[in-house]
Amino acid sequence: MTASPPFGMLAELTHRCPLHCPYCSNPLDLVRRDRELSTDQWRSVLTQARALGVLQVHLSGGEPLARRDLPELVSHAHGLGCYVNLVTSGLGLTHQRMADLAQRGVEHVQLSVQAADEARADIIAGARAAKHKKVAAAAIREAGLPLTVNVVLHRRNHDQVGAIIDLAEELGADRLELANTQFYGWALRNRAALMPTRAQLDAAEPVVRAARRRLAGRMEVVYVLADYQDRLPKPCMHGWGARQLTVAPDGTVLPCPSAHVITSLEFDNATERPLAEIWYESSSFNAYRGEEWMREPCRSCDRRGVDLGGCRCQAFLLTGAAENTDPVCALSPHHGLVERAVVPVVDVPFVMRG
Ligand code: SF4
Ligand code: FES
């Protein structure tokens, strides 16, 4: 199958982060600082990405502000003509720093929020982080940039959905993304502690609907459904190696941010192979493009062009083979794994991201 050029790139500049969120999708085996790409190597990755067709660059992590060369990388990406989005916890985002980054070319900021009140937010973040979010949001607004507030929902904050919407309004968000936890990396490790109850999910949906009506034209409210509670899988990443690539802190190039979990694949590194060659020719990017790789029941299913068999990472993590149907699908022979995982358990403590 011939791939189209990528539209976006998630540049995970570092795995270092002042927060320790138990739902983090970063790998359990985090990339250490001494293995991170240098400034010149990131510049080269950005230049190659633009030549390949990438228009949107998401500077993320970990916490991208932990990289001292962030301003330089922003200038470089902007100079190439990319739309630059900064994905941050907000810790260390002072007014001065935000003004400088905006002047260099950051055009949008996504700010994570852990809960509606400071005490609970700090417990979830494993750090005294909540008070910094207000400073960061004010700095983003003062710089005149659009602000998206990102909240990962789970059992310990789901009952706060209404209050979280109020907080996002107070912070001046243009967009609020309420995303039920997707179980990869640290989130999978903490699945039992994070899994929302059916009652929480049922209670949240009317609250979100009412907020959408009330805030129409002022703040967009996006609600990402709880994957495990659905009977149909999501068309993950809009297809494997279809629209976006991820570059990990050490230069590993991935078809999706969680692809490192698929240990049956070998991933190339941007320091060893040109990005365009990796995108078009590598075995990892071509592994699940198109439909040839599909097994039954996807292979003969009418929905295979709609949901593309769901998520390859989830299929691998839960069944041991990425070619299998995502077990979220009720037609999957492994669907019982998901049904058993959504049964509420007695509260267990979080394992904080290390
Ligand atoms: Fe989608 Fe495969 Fe399930 Fe059909 S069998 S609905 S293609 S995941
Ligand atoms: Fe990797 Fe879904 S998260 S394909």
UniProtKB/TrEMBL annotation:
Gene3D superfamilies: Aldolase class I
Pathway(s) annotated for this protein in UniProt: Cofactor biosynthesis; pyrroloquinoline quinone biosynthesis
Record-level Gene Ontology MF annotations: 4 iron, 4 sulfur cluster binding; cyclase activity; iron ion binding; oxidoreductase activity; S-adenosyl-L-methionine binding
SUPFAM superfamilies: Radical SAM enzymes
The record's free-text note on cofactor binding: Binds 1 [4Fe-4S] cluster. The cluster is coordinated with 3 cysteines and an exchangeable S-adenosyl-L-methionine.
Signal peptide bounds: none
EC annotation from Swiss-Prot or TrEMBL: 1.21.98.4
Pfam (any one): Radical_SAM
Function: Catalyzes the cross-linking of a glutamate residue and a tyrosine residue in the PqqA protein as part of the biosynthesis of pyrroloquinoline quinone (PQQ).
Protein name, per record: PqqA peptide cyclase
Protein source organism: Actinokineospora cianjurensis
